[in-house]
Specification:
heterodimer; A: 269 residues; alpha/beta; six-stranded mixed beta sheet; four-stranded antiparallel beta sheet; 10 helices; 26% strand; B: 333 residues; eight-stranded mixed beta sheet; 11 helices; globular
Chain lengths: 269, 333
């Protein structure tokens, strides 16, 4: 790994207060992300796997500033992230959401959605906007004719492509992908996973790839971090995790994953 | 052996403002006693509608326009309301994907379970309650008495799904229809739920019709597999044959599109395009435009579901099935 990681997370804590009892007098602390540290090198894909409630999405959202962090440090490209403005942050780090339909504005055409991003971040102006939009659509495998359609006129896979195009519009250095394929059909999942892989090689992108599906994680990641109850319990290279997982929880996760091979059933009576 | 459920040439349609829309077309299959049959397909393939047709839970707009569904000797398509009502819960029960929306949110679990048991058996209240507790214990809930007193919202997703399974199997039905029973759950919980379902059904001699899109779940659970695409059965066979020598390009492509844990995946073989949303107008094979094996005649006339292997009874709806070579990495050990 290089000496200067692109993203460095140090002892990050994101806690929520949850009120309970009569008149909300008592306060419980939910430790959604508890003392998490890791680094991502330039051009690396870090997979983040865990079950629902393990804090993996909160971690991703904390990094781009959608959640207020309780304590800890996030250093992006050598600079502490709180020293960056919101706009600067979103220029470098972009997010791809699980459900592209709820993250796209239903009243804007694809053209308008992309144009907005390009203008806000001054990525292009004048005629350059159209050229840039065409380039982005081409990059994610959508036809140029489709840019004047609205999100509801696309299928799930195509919508996810729009979501990716929008994220790529600002030429980000880091892409946080939060369950980007889990809402898609099996045959479409493969298309989108391939797209992520191709884009990463083409543009030299760095990903934090959050998913609960071990298959998808293994396919895209260089290293994998396993989260459980807000903590990273194991972090190692993909091959190591899949061959010599050390933590009992990781082992259980691997054993529970149904393998599409009827000769190797786990479930026997 | 006489089969338990026999579906022949089922055709289910929905009335829309623009005329009738046929969603399931010419679907035939059987489920034998104590057998697990999986229907696998992507969203929009008609797998759920096939299941709902069996119980005739199609709503106001849905109707079965052709074909027959027989459970033992009873023809379900012409059965009366009373007959069907008696059938549901007694002979056939169903587990849905989202247990929270299948349970009544304002009634305690115990009340809902006892209600089901008393409706279908002659047990009195006290005995029904004992039976309910026993069922909850059987599905692996560690503190069944507490669960009896709890409301659905107080339980986790996995616990709720266990309750649903307890409810579905309380009257020892002959057939359990499970529609994506583990899709909403985490993998570790999914494995537990599948184990419980399999164990209890084996004990009671219940057959399972499992509806899923997850090939991993199919491989874990099924004895036989039915692959659906665009409202039709495209392939049917024993689970080993389907996974090891698929005879339909769609099945093969689906298997190759799943990222594997044990094989080093360089590039996934994706299926281009997407599932057609309306397929009535398609003249030839419905998969032809996404198929790597398609020949010009594939788009001209519709292929029929034919038996491709006399010994195993494997069936495929493809003209070119003989051209399908099993690739080395395709699960042949």
């Amino acid at each position: 790994m290089s000496n200067n990681p692109l993203l460095e997370v140090k002892q990050l804590k994101t806690y929520y207060a949850s009120k309970r009892g009569l008149f909300n007098f008592k306060t419980d602390v939910v430790k959604a992300v508890d003392n998490v540290s890791f680094t991502i090198a330039k051009g690396e894909v870090l997979g983040l796997v865990g079950e629902s409630g393990s804090g993996k999405s909160t971690l991703g959202r904390s990094i781009i500033g959608l959640e207020t962090i309780t304590s800890g440090e996030i250093i992006f490209d050598g600079k502490p992230i709180n020293s960056m403005s919101k706009k600067e942050r979103s220029k470098h780090i972009q997010y791809v959401f699980q459900d592209p339909f709820s993250s796209l504005n239903p009243r804007l055409t694809v053209h308008e959605t992309l144009k907005e991003v390009l203008l806000v971040h001054q990525m292009a102006k004048g005629n350059g906007v159209n050229t840039e939009i065409n380039r982005l659509l081409d990059l994610v495998g959508l036809s140029k004719d489709s840019q004047h359609r609205y999100p509801h006129q696309f299928s799930g896979g195509q919508r996810q492509r729009i979501g990716i195009a929008r994220a790529l519009a600002v030429n980000p250095k880091l892409l946080i992908c939060d369950e980007p394929v889990s809402a898609l059909d099996v045959s479409i999942q493969a298309q989108i996973l391939n797209l992520f892989k191709d884009l990463q090689q083409e543009l030299g992108l760095t990903y934090l790839f959050i998913a609960h599906g071990l298959g998808a994680i293994k396919y895209v990641s260089d290293r994998i971090a396993v989260m459980y109850k807000g903590e990273i319990i194991e972090l190692n290279t993909t091959d190591y995790i899949f061959q010599h997982a050390e933590h009992p929880y990781t082992q259980m996760l691997l054993q529970s994953y149904p393998i599409p091979d009827p000769r190797r059933r786990h479930i026997t009576i | 052996m006489e089969s338990l459920l026999k579906v022949t040439h089922l055709k289910t349609a929905f009335r829309t403002d623009f005329g009738s829309n046929v969603v399931v077309n010419d679907v035939s299959f059987t489920v034998n006693h104590s057998e697990t049959v999986a229907i696998v397909g992507e969203s929009g393939s008609g797998k759920s509608v096939t299941a709902l047709s069996i119980l005739q839970l199609l709503g106001k707009r849905g109707y079965i326009s052709d074909g027959s569904i027989r459970l033992n000797e009873l023809e379900l398509t012409t059965a009366t309301k009373q007959q069907l009502q008696h059938l549901r819960g007694n002979d056939i029960s169903m587990v849905f994907q989202e247990p929270m929306s299948a349970l009544n949110p304002v009634l305690k679990i115990g009340y809902q379970l006892v209600e089901v048991i008393r409706l279908h058996t002659s047990l009195d209240k006290a005995k029904a309650k004992l039976h309910a507790v026993e069922m909850l214990k059987k599905v692996g809930l560690s503190d069944p008495l507490r669960v009896m007193r709890a409301y659905p919202f107080a339980l986790s997703g996995g616990m709720r799904q266990r309750v649903m399974i307890a409810m579905a199997l309380a009257c020892r039905p002959k057939l359990l229809i499970a529609d994506e029973p583990t899709t909403a759950l985490d993998v570790t919980v999914q494995a537990q739920i599948m184990r419980v379902m399999k164990q209890l059904c084996e004990e009671a001699g219940t057959s399972i019709l499992l509806i899923t899109h997850d090939l991993g779940v199919v491989a874990e659970m099924a004895d036989r597999v039915i692959v659906m695409y665009a409202g039709q059965v495209v392939e049917e066979g024993h689970v080993f044959d389907i996974f090891e020598k698929p005879k339909h390009p769609y099945t093969k492509a689906l298997l190759e599109a799943v990222p594997k844990l044990d094989v080093d995946n360089r590039q996934l073989t994706a299926i281009s395009g997407s599932v057609p949303t309306s397929y009535e107008h398609i003249m030839g094979c419905r998969f032809a435009n996404r198929c790597a094996y398609a020949k010009p005649h594939c788009t001209q006339e519709p292929p029929k579901l034919v038996e491709v292997d006399k010994h195993t009874g494997q069936k495929s709806r493809c003209f070119e099935w003989e051209a399908l070579k099993v690739k080395e990495d395709c699960y042949v050990k």
